[in-house]
Amino acid sequence: MSTELLARLRKVVSADRLLTDPQALAAYSHDDAEWADFVPPLAVVRAASTEEVAAVVLIAASTGVRIVPRGAGTGLSGGANAVADSVVLTLELMTEILEINPDERYVRVQAGILNDSLRRAVAVQGLWYPPDPASYKISTIGGNIATNAGGLCCVKYGVTRDYVLGLKVVLADGAVVDLGRRTAKGVAGYDLTALLVGSEGTLGIVTEATLKLLPLAGRENRAVAGYFADLVDAGNAVAAVSRAGIIPAALELVDRTCLQAVDDWQQLGLSQEGGVLLLASVDEPGTRGEELTEELHAIFTAAGATKAERSLSAEHAEELFLARRLAYPALERLGPVLTEDVCVPRTAVPEMLRRIEDTARRFNTKIANIAHAGDGNLHPLIIAPVDDDGAKSRAKDAFDQIVADALELGGTTTGEHGVGLLKLPGMLAEFSPRVIALHRSVKAALDPQGVLNPGKAFPA
Amino acid sequence: MSTELLARLRKVVSADRLLTDPQALAAYSHDDAEWADFVPPLAVVRAASTEEVAAVVLIAASTGVRIVPRGAGTGLSGGANAVADSVVLTLELMTEILEINPDERYVRVQAGILNDSLRRAVAVQGLWYPPDPASYKISTIGGNIATNAGGLCCVKYGVTRDYVLGLKVVLADGAVVDLGRRTAKGVAGYDLTALLVGSEGTLGIVTEATLKLLPLAGRENRAVAGYFADLVDAGNAVAAVSRAGIIPAALELVDRTCLQAVDDWQQLGLSQEGGVLLLASVDEPGTRGEELTEELHAIFTAAGATKAERSLSAEHAEELFLARRLAYPALERLGPVLTEDVCVPRTAVPEMLRRIEDTARRFNTKIANIAHAGDGNLHPLIIAPVDDDGAKSRAKDAFDQIVADALELGGTTTGEHGVGLLKLPGMLAEFSPRVIALHRSVKAALDPQGVLNPGKAFPA
Fold this sequence. Notes:
Strand order of the largest sheet of chain A: 15-12-14-13-17-18-16
Helix content of chain A: 25-40%
Largest sheet of chain A: 7 strands, antiparallel
Oligomer: homodimer
CATH class of the largest domain in chain A: Alpha Beta
Strand content of chain A: 15-25%
CATH architecture of the largest domain in chain A: 3-Layer(aba) Sandwich
Number of strands of chain A: 18
Shape of chain A: globular
């Protein structure tokens, strides 16, 4: 299989973009979810165009090989981990901006462009692409689309799907189709665009996207930081914000373990201020922004904040969010991180965090919590020391327990990272057998041979 | 077929909700798109529960009968028109509100509830359901979901799909599934919820929906009205609003023919003020709202408005929109209205309106224009006098010409009404054969026997 495959690939892909050396195969064999299974692929193709993607898919389909598409490989669920007899097809070289249209407020890009590059390019023309996964500096738009990535501001501005107007897609037999539209509205036919978003490369390979933009103007950045003694007080503050009818541009929670890890690294003294840090940002301009910031400050104080602080400038607002930005890298210094992504009803956040504390104790494992508290999306970060197989096994058990608890509280197994491989058991527990069967039917309709990223996104 | 069918239906549906008399069959044989084909159904079932819907679908599937689901029958594309050998299954009696959850900001309802009833019920708890199709007082949430209904405020707040978190659906074999979630975020598996939204009852019958809500608080209603000499000036004003980075809560255009029809009916003297009326609404509160209203007023004036007016109170803002609300009923007084629904790029609105004027002349037919100018969604209303077959035929030709022009300008055949039957040719022209084939594959995957609303939503 491998010899014929490589001979045919060489005819359509130039040698410098067809990788077969063991180091390259290893480097492209998994995304950031090393905890999930992977094997080295047969080859790696660094595609340069939609036509090339189509040609490679056609070759795979006719030689019985599977395609594992990927962008920057920053996924956290194993969606881009290589499977047996697969070619990893990376779109990281396809980074072109094809059109920025300020009048219609959309941008057309190739899928391999980094979220941040897109963001900067449209900002020059006074436009804003809201979806801001924490990985925005290193993740591609194609990857964001494949996982329907969320982020911090999605509590107010929605997720990736809400900004995808149209897609160019390579189907499982190598055909190229244009889905969706460029107009602001449109309901012609099934929403195949929305079906493709979040399908993790199992139904088609997105090579280009038309993305809706918002005006950059009319927004100002303000922030409120509140330290709380414990999760219950912080949880009450979150509930009170919701009850006041305020939708902040972000509402993030950083727990004691994170604060401690940041302090151990950067000596900011954050963990002395309180046990839990709640960060809200407001982007309404002028007096309206001032009012909302005041209101949030008052709510934090009334909920028992041991300290509450308003930003005095846009720079200060950025500074207040420093602990949030440093938390993940600070924790990664402690050992491999297994990242959770459950989402629970907003009001269940304190109970869920309490259960996570229990789970950490019960399984004798270290768990830090970053949470998009405003929408109930929690990222418990389970840390196992390097080369400690026992700890690794206990981390996996804790991971399963957290999913089970989230489902029991009316939540979902994945809020924004995707199912990939790590969340297959969670998805099986979340949906009825018939809903899982519907996934199989849709997959069979679009990819009858199972060429595209088999075994991902839903339990086969 | 009919005898066995009725005998079996009588076992699961009580007699008062199983209609077979010719008058009832005629009344339920079509929606508001009488221009499209329809035949009387074999029977009408006014379903009372999800279980009953499931039982009826199962009977249909096993007797070779088709199901045409419907809500209030206010559709404008023929999506609910009865087909041969069909049972019309109306959900209009299923109007219950199952849960209003202010903390999580969602509502769970049965599909037959009117948009307006839902809107009022959640308002009592300080919550707001944004999607506001012009039919909101008479259309059901189930119908809104089936067509992915838009409305006036969707230019700022999005369409129905953006508010559907989860669905209870009866599948083509009578199985009942729960799709989606109740949490604010979630990406587990394919977005089957989004696939069902806008699928016009061809993939499943939505019996319950969980809908995301926004806080009612923090919004104030202001409006700006501008009269323009012609479409070019009004079009320039729309483009200038977009370029200023302002997204109004609504931006509506009402043309001379509409203004004249309103005047002929209500003697408001609107048509004396100018040729085209542009209406913008702003919902930011306080000084921010004042500022934006001023800015819009200045933009309208700079674009050459012959008269521009700001609202002085919320009531006055409502009054300024009176012409928009009266336009459709005023036109219906002139004869049967064939309603268009093309959507073009914002900047193409003036050119599209110019072409529509040409079309009216060329086909010797009366066409009035209401447009959601802010998102390029136009509703040319083609009016044919009663019992004038020649006029009716010319109206249909004009309808086709408008779709052709919209596609040529980079638009879509339907912005918010759905494909139904009337837009099948438009959809065929808009998408490639392979994209149409994808629709067929998805339909075959979910409804292999073709039980649910066959022949609608995409060309078979």
